[in-house]
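Homework help thread (please don't just give me the answer)

Our assignment gives two proteins as sequence + structure token strings and asks us to describe the second one. The first is just a warm-up. Here they are:
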Amino acid sequence: MPDRRPSPDPATPSASGPPPSGAPVPSSASSPSPSPSSAPSPSPSSSESVRAYYAGLTGPLVAATGIVLDLHGRVLVLTTSYKDGLELPGGTVEDTETPEEGLARELKEELDLSVPVGRLLAVDSCPPGALGRSLVVHVHLVGPLDPARIAAISFPDGEITEAHWLTPEEAAERLPDRIAPRLRAAVAALRSGSLAHLVGGVPQPGSPAGLDPAARAALEHAGGYDEAGHRAARPKAVTAANVLFTDRAGAVLLVQPGYGEPGRWLLPGGGVDSDLGETPRAAAAREVREEIGLDLEPGRLLAVNWSHRPGFPARIRFLYDGGVLDPDTLARIRLQPSELLRWRTARRDELRGLVKPLLRRQIKACLKAKARGAGPLELHEGRPLGPKPPKPPKGRTTPR
């Protein structure tokens, strides 16, 4: 656990278990740190002296914490046998371990859980407290775990007595004040696909994740950012490009991916590689070529859709007209086997049973724009925005 020894200090590090009786406890009073200028200089001719020089330097303790999720997005929190309050899995990094290796070891020792340690979500730098040592905590994603792995969890070393699966909100409410901010920031980083930078549990102004959006906006409007911090903290968006193909009967070409939620159908297309300088139109052509094997230039832009869920990046979708595919062209479709399972065409009245409501609204808006020669449309969650047609003058009816 990142905080193993009972202490009022939020920066108190963990150990690999409760401290043994009579073990020396480091503190700023009993173990003063030599200043870099007073430390002996290493001899360039001796690798052992270099090793001894760096081994003698005091530095921050390093801990690794796991945000362990199940398939429902719940967080694993633990009750220990040696202290009050709930904990997150993890502990102090030992000897020459990396944070990832230390966390993997702690998961195995505490929970008999052998799973890969995922991406870094947050780093929390805690100033020295009662024990006189600063603490750097790396927070990593673990999972999500399937039911079989969860059922196999046990407590072999006796340090853990109970495991609880809570929503992130419930867990943050029940965890101690020294730990809850790390969880909140890590979940924000997970949802935004970013990283949180904390000092003593407090998200920093330039942190790409974890900073309250209202606080970020207030800092920005007050001129409180330098260029690097402003760029890091600005909200991010994910951009995709799709192509609407129809057959001669007006049915829409759909593809079924082999990833994500089973049974869903999508339009051909995918993410825009904007970091490589790719444009939405170029991405649409590339995705069609890669996914269904057709080298066709997208037609005119039918719509741009904006979607947003709180806590997640906004999603922008460019939807292009792919034209009408004749039977010979449809017969040339070759799916990318590593990504797609099958394709089909679907009439407008069949879309409800195949496509999720958000995409279904976008498809129907694009079909309407295509039939009328209108657009490009501005859509929000698949619904048209923009100025409404002017009302006819009083006393006159709209011609039919």
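The one we have to describe:
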Amino acid sequence: MNISKTILVTRNLQAMKAFYINQIGFPLVSETNESFMMQIGTNQLTYRLTDDVDTRYI
């Protein structure tokens, strides 16, 4: 199985963007007020804004 697109949620979109784009340097593909997508090799990772209390991934 090859996963080429993944969507995760976060309560702090700007902090995630700052970390992945500014600190690590992944290329930004697109962004809106509620999400951003980055390229990681041949895969795309999207973070979407949420107001859910628990956004931990277990």
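TA reply:
I won't write it for you, but here's a hint about the kind of observation we're looking for: The helical segments are 13-24.
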